[in-house]
Amino acid sequence: MTQSNEPGRATELRDLPTWLTVVVILLCLAGGGGLVWWYFSSPPKVVAVPISQEMRMPVRQNGGGGGNNRPPRVVEDWNGDIRPGNNGFQARSGDVQMWVRKRDGQAEPNLTVYYRNQLLPREQLNLLRVTLLANREDQAQRMKLTPEQIEALRKIPNVRGMQLSADEQKALRVTWTAYESAAADKKEEAKGAVLAMLDALGKKNLDATKTALTASVTAVRAVLTPEQQKMLESGEL
């Protein structure tokens, strides 16, 4: 093979030997394979990115809520005391609590005495709510209560607190009035009398209150259908 580079001059070009061509190709393949092996076998580099204080997320503490670092809520147990409450006072003694509320224009406050712990399973207590729901047209329709059922439910006693006799209610009111009107140096003694009476009434009337609650639950079951009972027991209403 000849090629003319300049006028009147010829240059002869020779073909490469076959073995040299093969060597060059193998070297190229080996070099490329080595590069690929190095790329995939080398561990990835980790780049540390500084985080500013504004970018840091709050740390949840044990007992905290909402993903913040507030301290856990501490519920104070002030059993055996009388304290101001919503529109009145609260008194706690043993398993008994009393709410004392007085509305404008009332000569005497309302005293509501009940047990702090549930006396029946939650499902049964939910059934008793129907004596109140029956007076609400929207809830009665939702439960598909018939007029006959509503009338029967309104006759069932709504047991909402401790079962107290008329004499016990009168004695408790007298004791509370004495506490309210007691002089500063007699206040602690009068408070002790209120708390002691609540504790004694709670122990005395525990069985009577359980019996009244159970009787109301039985009466409610006799009026409602199984489907209606299920709606109440599950807390759906």
3D architecture notes:
- It contains nine helices and six strands, in the order ββαββββαααααααα.
- The protein starts with a strand and ends with a helix.
- It is of the alpha+beta class.
- Helix 6 runs antiparallel to helix 7.
- Helices cover 46% and strands 14% of the residues.
- Strand 4 and strand 5 form a beta hairpin.
Short overview:
By secondary structure, the chain is of the alpha+beta class. It has nine helices and six strands. Helix 6 runs antiparallel to helix 7.
What does the secondary structure layout of this molecule look like, with pairings?
Elements: E1 2-6, E2 9-12, H1 18-41, E3 81-85, E4 88-93, E5 96-101, E6 110-115, H2 122-127, H3 130-133, H4 137-143, H5 147-154, H6 166-181, H7 187-204, H8 206-223, H9 226-233
Antiparallel strand pairs: 1-2, 3-4, 4-5, 5-6
Helix pairs in contact: 6-7
